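Retro notes - structure team

What went well: the batch runner handled both jobs without manual restarts.
What didn't: labels got mixed up in the shared folder, which is why I'm recording both outputs here explicitly, each with its sequence directly above its tokens.

Job 1
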Amino acid sequence: MAARDIPITDSEHGPQPGWTPTLTSSGSPIGSFTVRLLQISTFQNTSFVDTEGFGLLEDIELGALDKRTWSIHFYQPWVRPALPRSDWDTIENMIKIYLQKFSHLINDGASARDVPYPFVVQCMAGCELYPNRTSRAFAYVGYNGQDFLSYDVDHGKWILYEDTDLSRYVQATLQNYTAFSELVQVLFNDTCVDDMELLLRYGKAALARQEPPVATVFARAPSPAQLLLVCHVTGFYPRPISVAWLRDGQEVLPGPALTTSAILPNSDLTYQLRIVLAMSPGDGHSYTCRIRHRSLGTRSLLIPWGMF
């Protein structure tokens, strides 16, 4: 059994049934853009907290926080000039004030509720800008990798994911913790449209980047009665992609025989994934892996599998 690559083939009639509209990495329709600030704080004990923070425009890393000084380190040369220095100073100062209070708040809550150390708290806040210049701000809090709370920006309220004693306590605490809500309000509600449009203007080339996918198909035989057809797709950017197995030209629908991996990053800032189809050897059908991606336009990359 061997892998075989063939040239990109134009789809006969453009997007076919089952085609998923191209989305941004945040899962929003094309034409909208999302900026996010992410924070991961690991509380080893009451006296040691390790905090990482970084910012993203779509999946482009804009910068990160220095762990010692909490100052911003810019990763893209166009980010700092996009906003006035005074704006960056305001953002940096608000983040420092927020993080100082955050650590004390969480430790006090852990002590009051006998929460065992170590534990991890994740926070994400940002805004999404739509083509009509409206925007939506959002904020979420996670605990040990699980969804915990979300912030209703319009009503200024924290919403529980799970109703537990700990989540209710954190909800009540955050409701009175204005530094977080003020950070979200100022950065992502009041100034989202203006600041995002500046970032989009300065980052236009980075956001327009496209890398076409490269695909390979091969088979594995875990037993004499079963073959696993693997379609490995790599090297593509941006992240959204549609990959499907076709049986005799018809898309194989999701089910027990079909397994799709998560989309994973490569070291060159592209992405990869694989889709695996279980089948019986010699079943008489033809199989083709079909890839659709923004870089291909209306075309599809078709990779057939066969025994040679």
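Job 2
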Amino acid sequence: MPMKFYILDVFAPKIFAGNQLAVFPDAADIPRNRFSQLAREMNYSETTFVLPPKSPEANAAVRIFTPTTELPFAGHPILGTAFLLASTGAVKLDKDQTMVLELKAGLVRVSVELKDSQRGKAIMEQPIPQSRGTVSDLATVAASICLTSDDIAPYPPEILANAVSFFIVPIKSMRALERARPNGILLEALLAKLNVEGLICFSTETVEAGSQAHVRAFFPGLGISEDPATGAAQGPLAAYLSKNNLLKRGAKYRVVAEQGYQIGRPSKLTTMFEVSDNLISSIKVGGDVILMAKGEFLI
């Protein structure tokens, strides 16, 4: 049975940039045991499968797979899938140009701006991040990404979770951040001990003048050595920047993060959030989406 798929670049400032995504928009007839096999075959950070929703509030259900596992929530898979459904007419946007997608983590509202049938922008609402504590063993943290404790910026590495848990590690300089790389078993052991999906390290030194953070992200347990653009981590990263006074103070914030430069997939991720009574009250994350290709499996 032929199985149609599309390939998109998400958080992409230009073609052949951003985070690649494969979407199977008509997955209802695909055997469920094929989902993980197809995700491994595509071998992108994530592949999505669109199904009829169970919730009457949702326009579509989406399942998200890495090459090794299924995720309850993610960033660029939600944005890319929403853009595709809108651009192909599979989902009709409401008057606010939004749709609701049903994930294993719950319902997510996404707004889509179509520039044409191949390009546009998508913005998702994200849960408010919650802190699960800081980590004081800087030597072990640094060694897990092949750095030393002197490379860690003077802010405590912290575990922050929305629907996914991330370990946020501040790095003093761009030069140190460029030297970072996953330290095999040591990084996997640290992430398992902390019970998080991945490590997000960043510097406030950036390539682009309009960016506030340069980011690298490692997810060895998910089969992703380095992620080109981690949309789900942007809410936690923005909360960390705000908490540690790394942003100019205000009530409304717009944070631009750059990622993927070290692996040839430059990405730009924008986070908008509001603060009331020193607490984050809403978070939205978005970026540009480009439809790159379509095809089908003939199995």
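One thing worth noting from job 2: Residues 76-87 form the longest helix (12 residues).
We'll revisit the folder naming next retro.
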